[in-house]
Amino acid sequence: MYRTILVLFLTTLAAFAATDPWAKVKDLKTGQDLRIYKIGAKQPILAKFDELTDSGLVVIIKNEQVGIDRDDIDRIDARPDKDSRVSKESRTTTELPGPVGPRPAGTADVPGSTTSSTVSVGSKPDFENVYRRTPVAAEPAPKK
Fold first, then answer.
1. Is residue 10 part of a domain?
2. Which parts of 23-111 are beta strand (E)?
3. How many structural domains is the chain composed of?
4. Which domain, by its residues, includes 27?
5. Which pLDDT tens digit goes with each residue over 20-59?
6. pTM value?
7. Is 9 contained in some domain?
């Protein structure tokens, strides 16, 4: 009896977690770039993720901590948290000495080497949708 109830409870909990659009927002990391679309706003808010509460989102906008209520948010896009956009490459080549001409006595043939380094900075990854407000069923208009 208790096992059946427990299995039913866990199944219901798993189904709720799979359908909860706010669950992906919980996986964001502090400092991650966000693009937040508020209901009725023409332009998104560009911010960095700080923390998440049950009622909303706390973000950093221009070094200021701002809270945004969950009911005001229409959509959240996040830039994937990648390791680094900077790639470094170093190359070393060794040149063996060849016969160049007479050498002074006591000198040895010493190989020469050349080292070159390059650093490349790639572009930031695109934003990916993390949260989209689910439409609430509209209540029927009152009859006159």
1. no
2. 33-38, 45-52, 56-61, 64-69, 73-78, 86-95
3. 1
4. 17-96+114-134
5. 778 889 889 999 999 999 999 999 999 999 999 888 999 9
6. 0.59
7. no
